[in-house]
Design a protein that fits this description.
By secondary structure, this protein is of the alpha+beta class. The protein has helices at residues 2-35, 85-113, 117-132, 146-154, 157-175, 183-190, 195-211, 215-228, 234-239; strands spanning 39-45, 48-52, 59-63, 73-77, 139-140, 143-144. The strands form 2 sheets. The chain has a 4-stranded antiparallel beta sheet, with helices on one face. The mean pLDDT is 92.
Length: 244
């Protein structure tokens, strides 16, 4: 009986610790974005979504339909286009892991003076989450970890160009969706060894062809996307909607 009670406590406390750790981690990203002067966009914790509605610019609560995002997401967007936005974004990427370590550190101090199963989980859960999000070559969900993307940005070269192309595409969709995507950025993504990046590059090329009503080019880009599809996460394929 005692064993069953212990197992139930571990599951229950573990769930609470995981949710709290996720809130703090994603909240770190959001707060860092707000400090940079960016605007709140979205925060996803499990199936719950807090987001800014583009139609009326109001913050609302809803259900996140994409399970791939249930692990947590915190996002802000710049208020205007700027060459400094990518540098600011790099800082925002690190804010999540830092917030996780702060929570783990505070809980660790509490653990010394008030040892308990819950406090222990509240110590190790955020520290583990922060550490995992700093692994340089791993992916969490759709893209590289926070630390991985930070390193890809700051070290320059090819990885910087790929991250810049992805970031610029996101900014394009926010500020000038009626215009064509940058061709250089598309070529950078298509040439990437990462199949997900390449897939998205072809998707942006498809969108450019669509804006020009170039049916043949659209068909060619869709064909290439289909060949890459088996190596791309379902969540990315779901984001890249095409007209067959």
């Amino acid at each position: 009986m005692e064993l069953i009670v212990l197992i139930l406590k571990v599951i229950g406390f573990g769930f609470v610790a995981m949710m709290a750790s996720t809130i703090i981690h994603e909240g770190g990203h959001v707060i860092a974005g707000l400090v940079q002067g960016w605007k709140f966009a979205i925060m996803v914790i499990g199936p719950i979504k807090i987001y800014r509605d583009e139609k009326d610019d109001k913050v609302k609560i809803g259900i996140e339909k994409n399970p791939a995002l249930w692990g947590g997401l915190g996002g802000t967007i710049p208020r205007e286009k700027s060459d400094e936005n990518l540098k600011a974004y790099a800082k925002i990427l690190l804010a999540g892991p830092i917030a996780s370590f702060v929570l783990g550190g505070i809980s660790g101090i509490c653990l010394i003076f008030h040892p308990s199963l819950f406090v222990m989980l509240m110590t190790f859960m955020p520290i583990s989450m922060g550490s995992a999000c700093l692994l340089p070559n791993a992916k969490t969900g759709l893209f590289y970890t926070d630390g991985g993307r930070y390193l890809r940005i700051v070290k320059g070269g090819k990885t910087y160009e790929e991250e810049k192309a992805l970031f610029d595409a996101a900014m394009h969709a926010t500020f000038s969706p009626e215009e064509k995507y940058d061709v250089k950025g598309i070529e950078t993504l298509i040439a990437s060894e990462d199949k997900s990046f390449s897939y998205m590059g072809h998707y942006y090329a498809y969108l450019n062809a669509k804006k020009e009503d170039d049916a043949e080019e659209m068909k060619e880009q869709i064909a290439v996307m289909e060949t890459l599809r088996k190596d791309v996460p379902q969540a990315i394929a779901d984001m890249c909607v095409v007209e067959n």
